[in-house]
Amino acid sequence: MGNRPSGYDPFIHILDDDSLLIIFNFYRPILINEDENDDQRILQGGNWARERWWYRLAQVCQRWRHLILASASYLDLCLVCTHGTPVADMLAQSSPLPLIIDYLDEDPVTADDEEGVVLALQHRNRVRRIRIQMPGLDWPRLALAIDGEFPMLEYLYLGLLSEYLILPETFQTPQLRHVVTMGIGFPTPLLSRHVSLVTLSLQNMHPSAYLSPEDLLPRLSLMPHLETLLLSPYPPYLPWGFFSGTDRQLQLLPTQITPTVTLPNLRWFGFGGLSSYLEALLFQINAPLLEKVQILFLTPLRFRFSCLLQFMSAAENLRFGSAKFRFYDKAVDAWVYPRKGAKMYSFYMQFSRFFLSEQVLSTAEFFGALGTVFSAVEHLDLESECHVVSLRYPTLWRDLLGSFGGAKSLVVGHRLAGEISRSFRLDEGESATEFLPKLKEISYPATGGEADDAFIAFADARRIAGCPVTLSRL
């Protein structure tokens, strides 16, 4: 340090303003990583706290501060109103930059947080993004605060945990691109105005804001930029009579085999609710660039598989290479990935069923009916997260596995080893190559007993038939 020549300046101070701005621009972090595989985080738009990236840079020296604030538009600067932020002081002392309102919390809302939300919302001309999900928030007060025009608002994420909010029709958002609501009534007139939406996620809608397929489809046809469409039109705790009555009405709706609505940019489609509602949508939607599908059924499976088969077969970018099944006390989950080792699924399905036999039956029926779509799946992984009892009809496991005739490897969890091994017992006169003819490897727990005997006998039969199967004990 003492040997520096006089007049020495650190290299960073030699840079001109344009060079510094280029460096600052490269320093800006992305809000969501390309390899992000958490659905909820993707819907939430990533880590909005990263928008505070420039705060420390502006404190390095006066020159940097003046340069950054003078280039606010170029650097896309924003102020973040969130937990622990003295919103009143920040608004009073900072430049009039665009505002991001970000309050996601599982803990009850504090008085300071609520005041910060309401105060920030009063600056309607500056609000760019809103993300609010806090228990105990005074939602009627919030509804009053958003009653008006927000000319800059691009992202709206509102999640109620225990009540409902109906958005006022006077809530005007001409620049809105992303809508994610849970427990929110989104009036139809509002939806009709947002033809430039990229994300539309309406979950657990208020019954008064219910959208039938006949109401929804014409509005979707006006959204050519839509990339994400997630629908759960009903609250999960409505009485069964509501579901059954609505289900009967939907079953009477005419279905059109030729799609009437094309969503040219749709990548992610998700649905949770009545199977008849899903049918009414899928028969009329074409999404050629679809990459990801998720389905959660709330009602017993009375589903015309042809609509989903048509919908998925027309998608050029759907890829399936690996499937994983998990059985729980009251539900079964299935993930199908584009390839083994992929982090993000291309297809997800959940059935709510109370008994293992019903879970296996419904899953086997579902994937069996869509076998042509999943014919490219080569890797299977099955596990149970609950105690397993022997099925009354053990052939159900064989029906499920047989839906994936192209499978080359199978991983069986310890709770299912005994049950699934029975599917590999060959009947008298049955060829060893009829069941899962392309199978090359079975991995299962080294527990011994009947499971070992059944898998070893199957492997011996396949070896004799000239199609060997490797047994790997986990």
Query: Main sheet?
Result: 16 strands, mixed
Number of strands: 20
Stretches with pLDDT under 50, minimum 5 residues:
236-243, 245-250
The Cα radius of gyration reads 28 Å
CATH class category of one domain? Alpha Beta
CATH topology of one domain: Leucine-rich repeat, LRR (right-handed beta-alpha superhelix)
Tell me the quaternary state. single chain
Question: What's the shape?
Answer: elongated
Number of helices: 18
End-to-end separation in angstroms reads 60 Å
Report strand %. 15-25%
Class by SSE composition? alpha/beta
* CATH architecture annotation name of one domain: Alpha-Beta Horseshoe
Helix content: 25-40%
In which order are the strands of the major sheet placed? 1-2-3-4-6-8-9-11-13-16-15-14-17-18-19-20
What average pLDDT do the residues reach? 85
Describe the structure.
- With 474 residues, this protein is α/β, with parallel strands linked by helices.
- Among the domains are: 69 residues, no CATH class; 110 residues; 143 residues, Leucine-rich repeat, LRR (right-handed beta-alpha superhelix) (Alpha-Beta Horseshoe).
- It has 18 helices and 20 strands.
- The strands form three sheets. The chain has a 16-stranded mixed beta sheet, covered by helices on one side. It has a two-stranded parallel ribbon with strand order 5-7.
- About 3% of the residues have low confidence.
